[in-house]
Write a structure and sequence with these properties.
Blueprint (H helix, E strand, L loop, with lengths): L7 E6 L9 E5 L2 E7 L5 E5 L13 E3 L2 E3 L6 E2 L5 E3 L15 E7 L2 E5 L15 H5 L5 E8 L3 H9 L4 H4 L8 H4 L3 E4 L3 E11 L3 H4 L9 E10 L3 E9 L5 E14 L2 E10 L6 H30 L16 H17 L4
Antiparallel strand pairs: 1-10, 2-3, 3-4, 4-9, 5-6, 6-7, 7-8, 9-10, 11-17, 12-13, 13-14, 14-15, 15-16, 16-17
Length: about 350
């Protein structure tokens, strides 16, 4: 199906682009180098010199410019070659390289992969709640996954898998036993599971006064095109105790079958407990690394190069949100095509 080009993709956590470091990352099969200038503004260029195609990420930053390590050509943040140390120093007309529009929002760096004149920062999902949380109540992580990004989005949009794949941590059975409600607008799909009284998942039960007491639970995922999701969980116990968390799952395609998986979490309880926060970060990272990642990678191997929906998979009730998101994204991608 290809990719949605006129969209914002999460390129990196802000902390990944620091100091003199040059970060090379392939997004939508395009290799890009990210760097900060002396004023800490972030720039992004095609990670390939126009002379002999050496990665600029192997070179050095000179102010707001990048110098190729091979023959010394220097490129500005707009992609134009600003210095040619050879011969008469003239700049060949075909020397410029592509530059990308970037926006740093809180802890995140977003890149626009389409036409720069269509880049609208208002389309970036508002995840300020994460950056506003104290360091002792939030975490960020990254995984490189050998699977198509839409399979990973499906994994979050259909949370019924937590009752089986994560039975000892995040699952409690309430998702599978409830009926989800799905709604959508122009660029989002929202799926909500709500139960008035059910078993609390193990990871949260220990935070309730009576871990064995059933509680009201609301779980909601908001998918924003093309592949960013916010998962909100709120649990209200019968004695008035309440806990809530926000998780962020953002899938950035590297290629057709590889994905940059950015995940994060912040919570509204035990916000000043750094030790508890470290435990949460370890748990979340372990679950994604040891359970979700190998499962979806195995799924990708079984599917091969085919499109999932072309194989006519069995469709179950919990698939409603994932299917709506796939349809919406597919329509957006087709609309970008010349005959769309």
């Amino acid at each position: 199906m290809g990719f949605l080009e006129n969209a914002w993709y999460l390129a990196a956590w802000s902390r990944e682009i620091d100091g003199e470091a040059l970060l090379s990352r392939t997004i939508l099969e395009q290799r890009i180098v990210f760097y900060r200038d002396d004023d800490q503004a972030i720039h992004a260029l095609a990670d390939r010199c126009s002379h002999r195609f050496v990665p600029l990420s192997m070179g050095q930053r000179r102010g707001d410019r990048l110098q190729c390590p091979y023959h010394g050509l220097t490129f500005g943040p707009d992609g134009h070659c600003l210095h040619n140390p050879h011969g008469d120093g003239r700049i060949p007309p075909n020397a410029p390289i592509r530059s990308y529009r970037v926006e740093e929002r809180g802890l995140m760096v977003w890149v626009w992969m389409g036409h720069t004149d269509r880049a609208d920062p208002a389309l970036i999902p508002d995840y300020a709640i994460l950056s506003e949380a104290p360091a002792s109540a939030q975490m960020q992580g990254y995984l490189h996954v050998e699977a198509n990004y839409q399979l990973l989005s499906d994994n979050i949009m259909d949370l019924s898998h937590v009752d089986y794949l994560h039975a000892d941590t995040l699952g409690g059975g309430s998702i599978s036993r409830s009926t989800a409600k799905v709604s959508e607008d122009e660029r989002q799909v929202t799926i909500t599971w709500q139960v008035e009284s059910d078993t609390v998942p193990p990871a949260f039960a220990r935070e309730m006064p009576d871990p064995s007491a059933p509680a009201r639970q609301v779980t909601q995922v908001v998918w924003s095109a093309p592949s960013a999701m916010q998962l909100t969980i709120r649990i209200d116990g019968p004695d008035g105790a309440a806990i809530s968390t926000n998780a962020f799952h953002i899938m950035t395609p590297e290629g057709p079958a590889t994905t940059h998986y950015f995940f994060a979490n912040c919570r509204e309880f035990r916000k000043d407990d750094a030790d508890y926060n470290a435990m949460v970060a370890q748990l979340v990272t372990r679950v994604f690394t040891e359970e979700d990642k190998p499962m979806v990678e195995a799924q990708q191997k079984a599917i091969g190069t085919a499109e999932l929906m072309d194989l006519r998979p069995l469709v179950l009730a919990p698939d409603a949100g994932a299917i709506r998101a796939r349809r919406k994204l597919g329509a957006m991608i087709r609309a970008e095509q010349p005959d769309g």
